[in-house]
Amino acid sequence: MTAPALQIERLSVTFEDFVALKEVSLTVAPGESFGLVGESGSGKSTLLRAVAGLSPISGGTIQVNGKTLDGRRSKEFYRQVQMVFQDPYGSLHPRQTVDRLLLEPLAIHGFADTERRIVRALEEVGLGSGFRFRYSHQLSGGQRQRVAIARALILEPSILLLDEPTSALDASVQAEVLNLLEEVRAARKLTFIMVSHDLAVVTHMCDRLMVMQNGREVELLASADLVSRNVSQDYTRNLLVASEGFQRSA
Ligand SMILES: Nc1ncnc2c1ncn2[C@@H]1O[C@H](COP(=O)(O)OP(=O)(O)OP(=O)(O)O)[C@@H](O)[C@H]1O
């Protein structure tokens, strides 16, 4: 039997004496797209960052492709698991060319044929070689996020951790970048774990999702259940009502 892409058991994260994540468990199959939703401060980013080795873990275990992670993430882990952040302005160095930004991970991981990989990565995210020697400060938000996605994909990972990857973008650009993410997931059979406060985005992009509140699991749902309101918790119902109110007033 194939190991889950990600298996988290009773994971807790504590910042000094504040418990940001409390005994959360979840399993994501290879090729699945899994969403994390909940109000601001519910622990969604903390969970994703814990997988990436960026949150202080105080209990529980994380397995990636069947291997239990220890305190320090290995180089191989970062080849397999890549993260895309919300803010394409903060996550790319403004004074580096796109070429340089894409070359860096290849050099760190000792990849050969960097030329071919950079050209291919730019094609894959719909930018093309014309963008190769531009500086990231010369790019729009959507173009930057495409570069961030190219940089994540260039190491040929199997899992992408996506932390609100489109919420800093205008609505029309948001849809384009979401479509791109769906295309690359299908083409490369990637596993996604995606954080979003936007229920429409998560139900569109994800097969299943976890609703979180105060660092805990509220419920696990198939996206279809959220769409048809087949939910069992009042908290989830309130999230649905809040997101509809927002859409109506938008
Ligand atoms: N480095 C940190 N030090 C102290 N507290 C933190 C730290 N990072 C997160 N927290 C706290 O942990 C809680 C969960 O934060 P987290 O960013 O995971 O929430 P979230 O659900 O992703 O919210 P948002 O949608 O606003 O990003 C919050 O109360 C936050 O203030």
UniProtKB/TrEMBL annotation:
The keyword Protein transport does not apply. It comes from the Bacteria. Residues 6-239 form the ABC transporter domain. Keywords: ATP-binding, Nucleotide-binding, Transport. The keyword ATP-binding applies. GO terms for biological process: transmembrane transport. One of its GO terms (molecular function) is ATP hydrolysis activity. InterPro entries: AAA+_ATPase (IPR003593), ABC_transp_ATP-bind (IPR050319), ABC_transporter-like_ATP-bd (IPR003439), ABC_transporter-like_CS (IPR017871), P-loop_NTPase (IPR027417). PROSITE patterns: ABC_TRANSPORTER_1, ABC_TRANSPORTER_2. Belongs to the ABC transporter superfamily. This is Peptide/nickel transport system ATP-binding protein. It comes from Aquamicrobium lusatiense. The lineage of its organism: Bacteria, Pseudomonadati, Pseudomonadota, Alphaproteobacteria, Hyphomicrobiales.
